[in-house]
Specification:
This protein has helices at about 40-55, 70-75, 100-110, 115-135, 160-165, and strands spanning about 1-5, 10-15, 35, 40, 60, 80-85, 150, 170-175, 175-180, 185. The protein is α+β, with helices and mostly antiparallel strands. It is globular and about 50 Å long. The model is unreliable at about 1-40 (pLDDT under 50).
């Protein structure tokens, strides 16, 4: 039996079935972590995270909301590699996807209630470095030999850039300028 989901979403299980625990019922004896409505208790999270790390399984999160984002730091404590991704561009799950990883880092920082510079930088690194790591890509930085993938923005420091989301002055991919002053550059 299924219940109708939000517009464009696939139907999910009927949570009104006897014995089914609903997220709104609250946690039994631990903190609640949301993942598409499922409740994972802290002790279950620890056991699951240990199993994921042992199996070499990595995860991504897309930071849709505070109750749906993965508990990144907790997973990392167990050795699970976690990256930030963007899985849709104006798709049926959300019309707000734009494939902009700086914007995605901003969303992650916001839903994690980041306040400190270190927390804002960690949100950026989750998208810039950790996502690339999960895909087996080289870390892109400005060191000689590094992939020539970068963007230039105006800002005093990385945390300010994550918060303010300044216009991309220049975007370079594979050594080629692909956007200038916020607009794509033709072929």
């Amino acid at each position: 039996m299924t219940r109708p989901g939000p517009a464009g979403a696939l139907p999910g299980p009927d949570v009104s079935s006897p014995g089914t625990r609903r997220a709104e019922d609250g946690p039994r004896d631990g903190q609640q972590y949301g993942d598409l409505g499922d409740t994972i208790l802290e002790r279950e999270l620890d056991a699951s995270a240990a199993g994921l790390a042992e199996a070499g399984i990595s995860l991504t999160t897309v930071a849709p909301s505070s109750d749906l984002v993965l508990p990144i730091e907790r997973l990392r404590e167990h050795g699970v590699h976690v990256g930030l991704g963007s899985d849709g561009v104006r798709d049926s799950w959300s019309p707000f996807g734009d494939a902009d990883m700086l914007h995605r880092a901003h969303l992650l920082a916001r839903v994690q209630d980041a306040r400190l510079d270190e927390e804002l930088e960690a949100a950026f690194r989750a998208g810039a470095d950790d996502g690339a790591h999960l895909l087996g890509l080289e870390r892109a930085d400005l060191r000689p030999g590094s992939p020539a993938d970068f963007l230039l923005v105006r800002g005093e420091c990385l945390p300010q850039v994550v918060v303010d989301l300044p216009r991309r002055e220049l975007v370079v991919r594979g050594g080629r300028i692909v956007a200038r002053d916020g607009e794509l550059v033709g072929g």
